[in-house]
């Protein structure tokens, strides 16, 4: 696009510092990076904070592998999975400890508030990365691409969900924004540090995200010594601290990132024990979380070929490569990620989180190319209308998707919040390892050993939707211990079990629990009888032999809390689009709802 003086602004390249001055306020709003920067940052933070408050927890791995150990650190109890057994040790307590630090400062507040606070902290970490990447793209690629990147990233329902999620893959996604910003800004040391932190502390497979640094520093520019020094310094610095932390909590030398690679790739049974999906699983998820942005990226293939052909005819292939090398490397990285994880039998939505920033950037670059090549030839009013229509379509579909997820799947968190109020949190009884238990009025034998006066909250088939112990008070208003229990259902895999209840955190983390395995084999020691339960949380569905519908037993159980929940067993029209995206009136008619219910046992 030409400015008012008719000159063509230069585009920043990775092989030189950008010489293009910042755009003036007289330029159109899509290419002016100084307009409303504060407003954009505030809007971005608001979007992400909204996710922290209202985002849905849809992954039991997040609950049992991350929220529960954090609950152990804060309150002295929580559920333990086999991954945290010192025998296997494929999770890192260092990662948990990073979240424990801010949580500790607010741990005197009700547990649900601590939970939301941590989600908001994670959201703001992501928001800062998004804004940093946006600014870097504006200055080093061009301002219009930066604006498109900002828009796609902010409104993506995938980023909305992942930004507040307590998972290594979402942590890697947030760091991917910093990695992109560091690369296009030529801040090599910071970028390599973020890659190392992502791979060692977050998820070891995210090392693939560092491919652009490897290629550019080793093969494009002669930066081998800088690459080696930054890599060794970052790897050793982070790795040593993590190693010492995990060794302390597991009670033996542990390299958690190495253990997870060994289990998933080299010597372990691998994740296929937990289900397999075809490649269409990822295709559907990309469409749901990025809708038309996916088609915009696909448009990039013919556009790239056309621009390449035009540059070749003009004799400017060298300039074309230098100008687009970063985008090509980002595209190769995203494609390699899809190839690696698409070829694996076990697939989960969260496995794609780390490349979400790359998807936003690629969509922005392609649309900017489309704008310059085709739309830019039109009159100002026409190209503005076309751009507004396309971006509005993306925002509308994204909002529809995010609202549909919350409307259909938020019931489990809502009813546990209400249940917590029903029980009444005995704040003075909530134990934190910072304080002595006797100082809080808690008898250690009462806490460690189950008693007949305990309040038992049970789940059966809905164990995987339990939102974490942060939604269950340690003690009720009468000082009775509240315990979460499992009742046998049709599920035949391995359920978590409580960490060993001790007076010392280290004794809990170093204890080797019995009845654990890494083969997802069922352990019947996890179950209690339904008759021993005081409350039962369930999704109301047709009864089976192992999964009774307590609504059909009004003399024994009474519903005290109910919320609507999508009935996935019922067919839906239009290939499920009205379930995936909320359309007022039409989605209400096309989808069947059931109820998520808390039942209370009727005293005899």
Automatic annotation (TrEMBL):
Domain of life: Eukaryota
Bias (Polar residues): 1-10
Location of this chain's protein in the cell: Endoplasmic reticulum membrane
Membrane topology: Multi-pass membrane protein
Keywords carried by this UniProt record: Endoplasmic reticulum, Glycosyltransferase, Membrane, Transferase, Transmembrane, Transmembrane helix
UniProt biased composition (Basic and acidic residues): 12-29
EC code(s) of this entry: 2.4.1.-
Matches recorded under InterPro entries: GPI_mannosylTrfase
GO cellular component, one term: endoplasmic reticulum membrane
Any GO MF annotation of the entry: glycosyltransferase activity
Positions of the UniProt region annotated as Disordered: 1-30
Transmembrane annotation, as ranges: 92-108, 114-134, 146-168, 188-215, 227-245, 287-306, 327-345, 351-371, 383-403
Pathway the protein acts in: Protein modification; protein glycosylation
Family under the similarity heading: Belongs to the glycosyltransferase 22 family.
Protein name listed in UniProt: Mannosyltransferase
């Amino acid at each position: 696009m030409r400015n008012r003086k008719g000159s063509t602004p230069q585009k920043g390249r990775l092989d030189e510092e950008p010489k293009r001055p910042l755009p003036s306020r007289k330029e159109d709003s899509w290419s002016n990076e100084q307009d409303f920067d504060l407003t954009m940052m505030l809007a971005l933070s608001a979007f992400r904070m909204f996710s922290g408050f209202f985002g849905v927890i849809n992954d039991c791995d997040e609950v049992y592998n991350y929220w529960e150990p954090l609950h152990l650190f804060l309150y002295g109890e929580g559920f333990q999975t086999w991954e945290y057994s010192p025998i296997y040790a494929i999770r890192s307590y260092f990662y948990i400890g990073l979240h424990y630090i801010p949580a500790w400062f607010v741990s005197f507040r009700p547990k649900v508030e601590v939970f939301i606070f941590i989600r908001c902290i994670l959201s703001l970490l992501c928001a800062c990365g998004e804004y940093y990447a946006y600014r870097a793209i504006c200055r080093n690629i061009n301002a219009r691409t930066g604006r498109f990147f900002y828009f796609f990233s902010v409104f993506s329902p995938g980023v909305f969900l992942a930004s507040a999620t307590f998972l290594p893959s979402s942590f890697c996604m947030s760091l991917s924004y910093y990695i992109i910003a560091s690369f296009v800004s030529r801040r090599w040391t910071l970028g390599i540090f973020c890659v190392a932190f992502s791979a060692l502390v977050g998820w070891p497979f995210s090392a693939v995200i560092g491919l652009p640094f490897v290629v550019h520093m080793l093969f494009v520019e002669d930066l081998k010594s800088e690459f080696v020094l930054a890599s060794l310094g970052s790897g050793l610095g982070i790795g040593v601290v993590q190693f010492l932390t995990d060794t302390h909590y597991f009670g033996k030398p542990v390299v958690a990132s190495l253990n997870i690679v060994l289990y998933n790739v080299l010597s372990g049974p691998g994740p296929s024990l937990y289900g397999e999906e075809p490649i269409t699983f990822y295709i559907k998820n990309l469409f749901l979380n990025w809708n038309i942005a996916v088609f915009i990226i696909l448009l990039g293939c013919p556009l790239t070929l056309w621009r390449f052909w035009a540059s070749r005819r003009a004799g400017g292939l060298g300039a074309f490569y230098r100008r687009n090398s970063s985008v090509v490397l980002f595209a190769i990285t995203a494609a390699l990620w899809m190839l690696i994880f698409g070829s694996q039998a076990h697939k989960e939505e969260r496995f794609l989180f780390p490349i979400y920033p790359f998807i936003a950037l690629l969509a922005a670059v392609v649309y900017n190319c489309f704008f310059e090549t085709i739309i830019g030839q039109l009159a100002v009013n026409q190209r503005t209308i076309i751009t507004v229509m396309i971006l509005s379509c993306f925002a509308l579909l994204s909002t529809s998707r995010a609202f549909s997820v919350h409307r259909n799947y938020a019931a489990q968190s809502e009813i546990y919040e209400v249940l917590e109020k029903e029980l009444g949190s005995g704040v003075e009884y909530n134990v934190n390892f910072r304080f002595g238990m006797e100082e809080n009025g808690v008898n250690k034998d009462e806490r460690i050993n189950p008693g007949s006066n305990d309040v038992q909250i049970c789940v059966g088939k809905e164990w995987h939707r339990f939102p974490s112990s942060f939604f269950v008070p340690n003690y009720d208003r009468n000082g009775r211990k509240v315990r979460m229990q499992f009742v046998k259902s049709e599920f035949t895999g391995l359920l978590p079990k409580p960490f060993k209840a001790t007076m010392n955190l280290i004794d809990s983390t170093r204890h080797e629990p019995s009845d654990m395995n890494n083969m997802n084999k069922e352990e019947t020691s996890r179950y209690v009888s339904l008759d021993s339960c005081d409350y039962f949380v369930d999704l109301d569905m047709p009864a089976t032999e192992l999964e009774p519908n307590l609504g059909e037993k009004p003399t024994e159980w009474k519903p005290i809390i109910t919320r609507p929940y999508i009935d996935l067993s019922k067919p839906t029209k239009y290939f499920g689009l009205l379930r995936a995206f909320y359309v007022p009136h039409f989605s209400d008619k096309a989808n069947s709802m059931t109820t998520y219910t808390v039942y209370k046992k009727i005293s005899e």
